[in-house]
From TrEMBL:
Keyword Transferase (UniProt): no
Biological process terms in GO annotation: electron transport chain; transmembrane transport
Protein name as it appears in the record: RnfABCDGE type electron transport complex subunit D
Organism ancestry: Bacteria, Bacillati, Bacillota, Clostridia, Eubacteriales
Sequence intervals crossing the membrane: 37-54, 66-97, 174-198, 205-227, 233-251, 263-281
GO cellular component, as recorded: plasma membrane
Source organism per UniProt: Isachenkonia alkalipeptolytica
């Protein structure tokens, strides 16, 4: 009797990433309500079905990585994102950033970020103009479907409120009781996840650190130059998506460079481009655009580093 094939491709590293998202999922549910979990479930099921439709013809299993993409994609959304918009986004990410390149291991772009960027541009009102108030006391969102909404063009996220009386303090940003996307508000929970990923050797510390170094360095330079609209580096780092992006998305190994030098260049440039877009672009969420831009350059960076090393080695081996 032939052995029955598993529906999922076993990927221990992907399961570790999923474990790392658990504190953030629990925190997001507390701050914004049980819709966090239903939105995650709907997106995950949609992602699995989408990949299955591509794999069934060849009888290949669905990757556990698709679940990771779905959960991270959901955590990058506001809790009030309509289900159909979230479904469109994850389908786009899985199909056009993963399957068209040949599936897991061949994708050039990060599927979750590609999907998030697509709906950010296509349905901006749902991701930039409608937010929900965070719960302020226990049991918080554990006893309600969704917290009260704030519908305003200016928004109520920390970056949108910068420079106003409504701007949150550092303690609020660290804890996470501020409006924003589900996984991006609580600095302490993101750091807990980062420690787990690094301790289990699931994420490369260089890929995690490089974009933060680049972002803080250029944020500091712009701030000291007095560029309008640039916050102090601490507020800049803790008030947006940069930390969440660096911990979970830049460290995605398939779309990132493989050589050490290229990882540092790649990450620092992500931080730099994110800062440029956040300061001068029409979209305040510069990190996701920066990552996609640098995804395209990751293979070139590896080739360039190897070529330079080879040239240096040849010169060193053939002294004049």
């Amino acid at each position: 009797m032939a052995k029955q094939k598993s529906f999922f491709m076993k990927q221990a590293m992907m399961r570790k990433v999923l474990f790392a998202t658990i504190p953030i999922l629990i925190g997001a549910t507390y701050f914004f309500g049980l819709r966090t979990l239903t939105l995650t479930a709907v997106v995950t099921l949609t992602a699995i079905i989408t990949e299955y439709l591509f794999k069934r013809k060849d009888g290949k299993p669905v990757s556990e990585a698709v679940i990771v993409s779905a959960v991270l994609f959901t955590l990058a959304l506001p809790v009030g994102t309509p289900y159909w918009v979230a479904m469109v986004g994850i389908i786009f990410g899985i199909v056009f950033a993963k399957e068209v390149f040949g599936g897991f291991g061949r994708n050039v772009f990060n599927p979750a970020i590609a999907g998030r960027t697509f709906i950010y541009v296509s349905f901006p009102e749902y991701l930039t103009a409608t937010w929900n108030l965070p719960s302020q006391s226990f049991p918080g969102g554990f006893t309600k479907y969704i917290t009260d909404s704030i519908e305003t063009v200016s928004g109520a996220t920390p970056l949108a409120a910068m420079g106003t009386a409504d701007a949150p303090g550092l303690s609020e940003l660290i804890i996470g009781n501020v409006s924003g996307s589900l996984g991006e508000t609580s600095i302490i929970l993101i750091l807990v996840s980062a420690v787990y990923l690094l301790a289990t050797k699931t994420a490369d510390w260089k890929l995690m650190a490089a974009p933060l170094v680049g972002f803080v360095a250029f944020n500091s330079i712009f701030y000291m130059m007095g560029v309008e609209g640039v916050p102090d580096p601490v507020f800049g780092l803790t008030s947006g998506s940069m930390l969440f992006l660096s911990v979970f998305f830049v460290t995605e190994p398939i779309s990132a460079p493989k050589t050490t030098e290229a990882k540092w260049i790649y990450g620092i440039l992500i931080g730099f481009v994110a800062m440029i877009i956040r300061t001068y672009g029409i979209f305040i969420a510069g990190g996701m655009f920066a990552l996609l831009i640098m995804n395209t350059f990751a293979p070139i960076l590896d080739v360039a580093v190897k070529e330079l090393k080879a040239t240096k080695s040849e010169k060193g081996g053939n002294p004049a």
